[in-house]
Amino acid sequence: MLTAVMAAMGVLASPAGAAQTSDTGSSAVGSGVPTVAPMPADTTTVPMRRVVGKKLVDASGQPVRLLGVDTTGTEDACVLGGKVSGWGPFDAVEAKSIAAWHTNAVRVPLNEDCWLGINGAPSNFSASTYRAQIRTWVAELNAAGLVAILDLHWSAPGAHRAAGQWPMPDASHSVNFWGQVAAAFKSDPSVIFDLFNEPYLGGTHPTAADWLCWRNGCSSSQDPCAKDDQLGCWTGTSYRVAGMQQLLDAVRASGARQPVMIGGLNWAGDPCGVKDLGGNGGSCAWLSHEPHDPDHQLLVSFHTYDWTACITVSCWESSVKRVARQVPVVTSEVGEKDCSDRYVDRYLQWADRNGISYLAWSWEPPLDSAVGCVAKNLDLLSNWSGSPDPANLVASAFKEHLAELAASHTAQSAVAGQVGRVGVRAPHLVPSIRLRGGLRLRHRCAGTIGRCDHRSHRSGRSHVGTVRRGHRRVGPPRSPHL
Hints:
The protein has twelve helices and 18 strands. The chain is of the alpha/beta class. It has one domain (20-364): TIM Barrel, CATH 3.20.20.80. The strands form five sheets. It has an eight-stranded parallel β-barrel with strand order 5-6-7-8-11-12-13-14, surrounded by five helices. Strands 15-16-17-18 form a four-stranded antiparallel sheet. β17 and β18 form a beta hairpin. α4 runs parallel beside α6 (244-253).
């Protein structure tokens, strides 16, 4: 574990083309944006994550997965006047509540206008106020032992307000945004950057030209009269797209060397492009258009819900697992909205078997107006204390799943030093098996195929049986990396 503060406070220059001002307030489009001092990091307490070869590893070089949740509010509360309930406490108590779910990572969505203090973002919620809140929140997460993933979630070109999701980042502000954010957090080894939430140029069937634009940028047009845009409507807006290479270059130019996550097209839901228009020709679109990172610290961001592009095991194998053989994959959003937890459970089991990271959407209680499980199935909490929402089946199942992974990891670590001694074998521990009716069996087997102890969560009784050679297991075949 590192033991020294890695950088002192200082003011860094803005990226090329941006006027420089002090970090004392907001500025209008065309008049420059403030520079931001880097955040000093107490690296004696925060975990470090790096990409080595094809794996994400910890400070000791051991393979590790990111397992956690997405928080919300920091992408929208500013532009909506701070009047949304998603803006949570963002304090040490909340950070510890998240960690209590046996998580090790939290994704923090950001708003371009709020960070830069532009396009009429309310001054009492944006610019230096917003930046200070984000820095404080990241510090609280780190202090709780959590990696903070900073994500550009809402953006908009020119004078348009960043009040919803656009298909791609904009050259007007997104490059400068990442130059500033990366400079502010470059000294924090427990921060990861997620360049753009959900690129969707080309919609559900992107083309090869769309992927080139995704990497290199292009001229595009968009009708931002989307349901998320509550502050105005324009039609046929032309704008210059900032490609992922430009955003990555801005991060590296700041001096930041942390891992960077990049989601592919189709709302980050199909990295290899198996659903692309005309197919992907047998190649993997993300790998074919991978931006160049001189630090070799790229991660693939993948989003999956029960309604998105890639929702079957065969698709996960052909699109997600394929890219994961070359670049670590982080499922930075997973959820479902069908009054069930079957989809999430099926995906988590597959991800565990294949060493894929995942974070559940989202760490917040439902709006007061939300009625019924469908409206609440994406909100994990019943209140800000961290209690799972009983109306959301995913919430309790996800919390329990993480607890089982943690218990399995702890148990294997405890016996690791005993393996190799005469008469001692390592047990095979896996998360519990889900049965119909919500019953789960905790599964503990000996190091070789033989007798197993299945403990019912509901009854607490043990059932001893024999696992036959060739019997199909449910759940990961090995202890997942934590």
